[in-house]
Amino acid sequence: MRQEQRSTTRSGGGKAGYPEAADKASLRRNNLGVVLRHLRENGEQSRTRIATSTGLPKATVSVLVADLIQRGLVREGELDRAGAVGRPHRIVDLDGRWICGIGAEIGVDHITVTAVNLRGAVVHEGRRALDVASLPPRAALTAVAELVTESLRAVGEHGMGTVGVALVSQGSVDAASGTVRVATNFGWHDVRAADELRALLGPGCPPVLVENDAASGALAEYVAARGTDVHELVYVSGGIGVGGAGISGGTLLRGSEIGHMKLDRLDRACACGRTGCWEVAVGLQTFLDAAADPADRVHDRSVDLAERLAELLARAEAGDPRTLAALAVIADDLSLGLSVLVDVLNPSRIVLGGYFAVFGRYLVDEAQRFVDRRRISPAAPRVVVAASALGLSNAAQGGAQLTLEPLFNDPSAVQVRATVSHVGPGAEPE
Ligand SMILES: [Zn+2]
């Protein structure tokens, strides 16, 4: 996964330095990251269990945990008495009180800004309906900057620091230069979005990066699966565009243009200039067009997408034949594409996000049946299809997670907090 650049200087390095000291410092940095990532992936646990699971000596784990507590990254919690013989152990877990990241998703008809703490919990969220496709990029980014500023103020009031802002866009992005290369659904080409947003936020703003929405969504799902045995998944997001990305053992596998696989049985024209793309068959616009007449308010982009989808969900639940018929067609075409992904990627889990998740009960079962029927042999491992439980802000949440990623790779970049050990439990602004 991409590493954010840091200006922190460290001792022990340099050509004429002390190799042994440098090795020790780098070993310690690495081990701090091992413990912190272990807690993210497995949830709260005792020092003894961390030692057993990571293979680090117990005494080393104790020193590392003490260091992480001083940096405000880990905190002590309950006593672990479960099944233990002898003295109970104090549980340690990620500390959500001090540090957060901000994700700002720019969609075709909305912007969502979400601040997430180290534990993956949402601490602040702002959302606005915005017809991005009809605005120049600068105007859309100005609206994003307003929501981000609001979020920075809110987390500051909680006493938290923000390590970075990730602008999350659909289409292809160049993370290194912070550029949205092509976002066909809102007509952006080579927009230097990170630079623009940085300028709009003004001096003193946290580092700004740019990421693809499906990659961010995959990361959010992965973090949400913390403490379970899910260590690998493929995420497919349903909006006006359809995107996908995978994550395996904590490493993000950025999706190619899965929304543009040639799978549309009607060979309709796509915003990418070609015909027959999967996102034309299963994208949100196709669903809306099938479910409601053009004058219906579910087509009104000035109304928040969550509200419009809730309206359609209510119709489906009331048994409205037109909505149910539209969903049945989407379910068929979605299943077809997912079965291709299964054949190519062989994941153990597929998570559906965006509007697919809102209508999960109408789409997931059909997709699961289809994928099960297509299984090469009964002995082949089963792929589980599930709906995201993170809601429509999942890509923004993943963007926020992405800004926190460097801390999990190198916790020593976070300064020791002078006061942290004196802050009692119950002060967590979650
Ligand atoms: Zn296309």
Summarize the SSE layout with pairings.
Layout: H1 19-42, E1 45-46, H2 47-54, H3 58-70, E2 74-80, E3 89-94, E4 99-106, E5 110-117, E6 122-129, H4 137-157, E7 161-169, E8 172-174, E9 179-183, E10 188-191, H5 193-201, E11 208-212, H6 213-224, E12 232-238, E13 242-248, E14 251-253, H7 278-282, H8 284-291, H9 305-317, H10 321-345, E15 349-354, H11 355-358, H12 360-373, E16 384-387, H13 394-409
Parallel strand pairs: 4-7, 7-11, 12-15, 15-16
Antiparallel strand pairs: 1-3, 2-3, 4-5, 5-6, 8-9, 9-10, 12-13, 13-14
The structure holds zinc ion (ZN).
- Report the sheet with the most strands, covering strand number, pairing sense and barrel closure: 5 strands, mixed
Taking all Cα atoms into account, the compactness measure Rg is 23 Å
Instruction: Let me know the average pLDDT.
Output: 87
Percent range for β-strand residues: 15-25%
- Helix share of residues? 40-55%
Note the overall shape.
Answer: globular
Present as ligands are: zinc ion
- Which runs of at least 5 residues are low in confidence (pLDDT < 50)? 1-17, 419-430
Output the structural class.
alpha/beta
The total of helices stands at 13
Main sheet: strand order: 6-5-4-7-11
Give the termini distance in whole angstroms.
Answer: 28 Å
The topology string of helices and strands comes to HEHHEEEEEHEEEEHEHEEEHHHHEHHEH
Count every beta strand, where a strand is a DSSP E run of 2 or more residues: 16
